[in-house]
Amino acid sequence: MSNSGYSRLEDKVAIVTGAGSGIGEAAARTFAKEGASVVLVGRREAPLRSNAEAIVKTGGEAITVAADVSSSGDVDRVVAETLHRFGRIDCVFNNAGIQGNGGPIVEMKEASFDELIAINLKGPWLLTRAALRSMLDGGQGGAIVNTSSFLSTGATAGTSVYSASKAGLDAMIRAVALEVGDKGIRINNVNPGVIDTPMLRAHGEEVIPPLAARAALGRIGTPQDVANAAVWLCTDEARFITGQSLLVDGGFTIPGPR
Ligand code: NAP
Fold first, then answer.
1. Is 6 a catalytic residue?
2. Is 195 in the pocket of ligand 1 (CB under 6 A)?
3. H helix intervals, the chain
4. Into how many domains does the chain fold?
5. Which residue out of 31, 113, 125, 162 is catalytically annotated?
6. Opening angle at CA 221, ends 101 and 163, nearest 5
7. pTM of the predicted model, to two decimals?
8. What is the pLDDT of residues 196-208, one digit of tens each?
9. What's the CATH number where 155 sits?
10. Which superkingdom heads the taxonomic lineage of this protein's source (predicted)?
11. pLDDT tens, 145-174?
12. Does some domain include residue 253?
């Protein structure tokens, strides 16, 4: 039984990227509360360590692997260390991402395009590929969730590449779902609206009230709001859901005149 007393992922092993802050930090703790052993991934070791220590202190199991998700060598190391320590992979939450150096396309540098696509799109593709090889070998099925965005179908001026990177994730899962569904492996996205994380806070406090007012629920989201949906998609409760991009936005994007 997990420390929460509610353990939908008992004996499972979950890899969470971007697990040192924001949505990934909350998700790593939530996977652990549900009974999963958790592998926390990100580039900076210190925030991963402190989150892993918090998990272990409350009775969970966690290890950290400092890695850049855009490097195939690093991603292979994440999988190898996971298998070495826990022997299997059941869930992957491809959550690491950057907002990057966006802006009007005419002012953007090619390097910013490459960085955004490498981290936000190629990163999840690399870890999905590596984890699927292990899941298929193990034959025990599995669940993968990526963090997309409301901006995969929406847009604000300045998000040409960010939006494209997230739309790429929405497209990717449809094909992968068809490739591995018959092996009991599901893949879905969570598409957050505006969420209170360091990524949002980088824009300043003043942006928050008008964004909160736009959402049907009258507030911006918490990292836990998104973590709950991502972890749920990995549980058996979501066993008939695959290839879907789930908006978790408090009604921020409800369309039509208002
Ligand atoms: P955050 O706190 O900035 O989290 C992003 C995490 O990704 C950081 O922990 C970062 O750690 C990690 N990361 C970035 N690049 C990486 C790389 N190359 N390799 C490994 N880890 C990397 O912001 P967040 O809002 O929680 O973001 C999580 C996800 O939600 C992102 O994919 C973001 O695009 C998406 N999202 C956020 C919002 C929002 O309103 N906050 C809305 C829609 C979608 P290191 O820097 O240590 O690597």
1. no
2. yes
3. 22-33, 45-57, 72-86, 110-117, 123-138, 160-180, 198-201, 208-214, 223-234
4. 1
5. 162
6. 35
7. 0.98
8. 999 999 999 999 9
9. 3.40.50.720
10. Bacteria
11. 999 999 999 999 999 999 999 999 999 999
12. no
